[in-house]
Amino acid sequence: MTSSGHGPQWWATKIDSTGAIGGIRRQWPWLSVCALVLIGLAIIAIGSWRLGAVLIGLGMLLAGVLRSVMHDPGILAIRRHRAIDISFFFFLGVATIVFAAIVPSGM
Fold it and tell me: Where are the alpha helices (DSSP H) in 1-107?
């Protein structure tokens, strides 16, 4: 088969995980966490800070889950020590959700 745009060679280049598109495709865990955090920030900007903070905390918990179950989590792998990353993400997520729950709303 020739590389005229059809056939197996063309398909292999489209599903390859190298290059610019492949680099973005490999970062879906990080992008999904960022999307959740950005949605939380948008909700905070609208005026519901408690719900936005909970969404940001859930984003951090999602980061911890993805870091713990994925072999190659992309940029979510902050350090080589997996346990430290997972502990950091879970601590940050739980702390954010707890603070959102315990801060009095009538200040």
Answer: 8-15, 19-26, 28-46, 49-69, 82-102
Tell me how far apart the alpha carbons of residues 99 and 56 are, in angstroms, rounded to a whole number: 12
Radius of gyration (Cα) for the chain, nearest Å?
19
102 to 12, 49, 80, 93, 95: CA distances (angstroms): 52, 13, 34, 14, 10
Whole-prediction pTM: 0.74
Residue 78 · residue 106 · CB < 8 Å: no
- The neighbour count for residue 33, using CB atoms within 10 Å, is 25
pLDDT exceeds cutoff 50 at 12? no
* Side-chain half-sphere exposure of 94, counting CA atoms within 13 A: 8
Per-domain boundaries in the chain: 30-102
